[in-house]
# Entry
Amino acid sequence: MSHSHHLPPVVVGAGPAGVRAACTLVQHGLAPIVIDESPASGGQIYRRQPAGFTRPGAALYGFEAPKATALHQDFDAIQVQVDYRAGSLVWSARPGTLDVWSIAADTSRTLDWSQIIVATGATDRVLPVPGWTLPGVYTLGGAQVALKYQACAVGRRVVFAGSGPLLYLVAYQYAKAGVEVAAVIDNARLADQAASLIDMARQPKTLLKGMYYVAWLQARGIPILRNARLTEVAGQAQVQGVSWQRNGGDGAVNFIACDAVALGYALRSETQLADLLECEFSFDALNRAHLPRRDAAGRASTPGVYLAGDGAGIMGADAAELAGERAALALLADRGIEVSDARTALLDRRLAGLAKWRRGIEAAFPFPADWARSAPDHLVVCRCENITAGELRTVAKDTGASELNRLKALSRVGMGRCQGRMCAAAAAEILAEVVRVPVHQVGRIRAQAPIKPLPMTVRIEDEAP
Amino acid sequence: MSSFIGTDVVIIGGGIVGGSAALALRRKGLQVVLLERDFCGSRSSGINFGGVRRQGRPLSQLPLSQRAHEIWGRLAEHIGIDGEYQRCGHLKLARTEAEMQALVEYERRTQGHGLGLEIIGRNALRQRFAGIGDDVIGGSLCPEDGQANPRLVAPAFARAAQALGAQVFEQSAMRSVAFDGSRFVVETVQGLTIKADAVLNSAGAWSGSLAAQFADGVDMVSRHPSMGVTEPLPFLLPWSLGVEGGNIYCRQVARGNLVFGGGLGHAVDADRARAQSATLLSQFARIAQIVPAFAGASILRTWSGAEGYLPDKLPVMGASRHQAGLFHAFGFAGAGFQIGPAVGEVMAELIADGKAATPIDAFSLQRFPASSLPPERTA
# Structure
């Protein structure tokens, strides 16, 4: 690419991918603009505490504390060289421009770009269960953020349920922080986890940490219920307990009293910005999601757009750091700036190794493909608009809707405050079940600005300083 | 895969015009094939503001609009759902004396057309709705105008036609159309061939190329409204609101969300459009001006579509100038939703009976000088 780049590169997101991208750009003499919704860098995983909070890094980040500290320090060290816009949300975008809402000032400004690294991260993938809208039900990631950010627990006696690596990690973190963990209910079978050991052993430290969390919990007598799932969160105005049963068992339902639940089925990528930037998407079977396409270096289909980190497919924080650097090197090369071939090759090798490990993780914590079949009609799928699984089934059958945007238009699913970020994965599973097609065929909800709700008090910012 | 269908009428475009024409043609006993390249009612018919409004239309449209008003009044009989239609009233606001004069003048000119307009002054307006902004000096209320949910209404016309035996093909784009001397031959990209005695061109903003192929080319441009919706809010706004001049309009649905528009979005490509950020931010200030209580709400979503505009902002409705059996209904200039159901019925009358029961002379292609046509070939 040889077109002139008179504009500084833009990095959206200051988590592991965005920070490493920014550092790499600065090392090569550029002064990027870094836009991040949070008040401080670190992303979700290495989220920093508010001012005045004093829990030590080892308590906040556990085994990951050295990585968190390094990321924070490295980003702090380049503050002079970057135009860092914390507390700012990219709420709309198109090729060539971004609209950025400065949250505290409540102003919006248009920012022109020629090269942009999209490092927008992920949220929990939620598969609802009856009762999940009760106060006291959190996602795994949300429960972790409450603890990490402000040292708050979501309850006194908490059940952790779902699947994915976060399940045991967050349960462990809660138990270490002194919260009673009532049980860990893991949808996966121990056999799945054993069978995936070969791939997971590519990251032996990560594997050992995972085994350590499980062993630590077991040693304290915390029930770990594998191959099992929640059937209901019970309570009147507040969580009072959960019902669960074994997958494929005799159907016997068990009850555990608790005052909070943290649930999630791994993570889902935040892809709205890539969508508004006109990036092409394709279905990714590993993530069971439509994702913006990228080459091995992170280049998207839209010229000048680079994708890094969990926002373009879940690979975890270590891979995000590598991918952020790799995308920045691609951006630099496309700008005509010389980069180290050896470093590029090393990053590519490491990322390829992590990709194999990632497949192992998926095998260890498989998506519950029968979830839609087991979802009762009264289950609320879209909590913003209070749309049940039964309503979705009825609308799909009555209207012949076979595509997710069509189902949205006819049923309101995904039309509320979350704009489908929380409910679309589940709605797609329900629709695929009704239409009897593989889930990729029902498509994905198209992104529409604003990426997150935008108050009408926002005014256009005056001339740039 | 290829297959063949013979029919009386093939309709190109499954929006509210094509869908209601298909329904009316089936009621007249004609065989109908409806082709929609996307999903029926998923484009401008389904993503428009949802105002069901006669007030503000040019006089030439009022007979058609009154006919549509009757259809809307019995909507569930036609399409099987209420479509969230309600006759909440449409209040058009004035913010200057000149705007107020324009409202008064419109009321005077439309007397006898059945709109029942009521001019409301500054104080009376505040007695009826205390939430109105200080800059508003009065308004004109059309009590039986209202609002509906276009997402639900527009697809339902095609579904109702299908239930009466119309053959509806969605995600079926037309590849070619020709007249073979006795019948039209329409081929779709998907390999379907349809032979029909008549063709109705109701492809909205994309109608121009078919028209041009039969020497009915017109100077139509696409515009893209910039639409948005807020989170659900406490119910407050009794009417669907517009302003003289049209730079902001909004309605609050029963669920509480405020739907709004005014100003233009932008085209992404030939098929897609999006709201425009600068337009959206200007809409915020205008909403705050007319209903200050909404100023602190958050918006959840924006969207746009493509609407066809002719130079005089009137639609084209009627027979081709040159090709017997070809009929056009397009170019509704962003105001086709309310009259759409009547347009479908009128087009069905033209096709089946050779004449319309409602005057539509003002919308004839003949109003455009032939010299303005681009060079073209006849089929």
Q: What stands out?
A: The domain at 371-442 of chain A is CATH 1.10.10 (Arc Repressor Mutant, subunit A). Chain A is about 35% helix and 20% strand. The first strand of chain A starts at residue 10 and ends at 12.
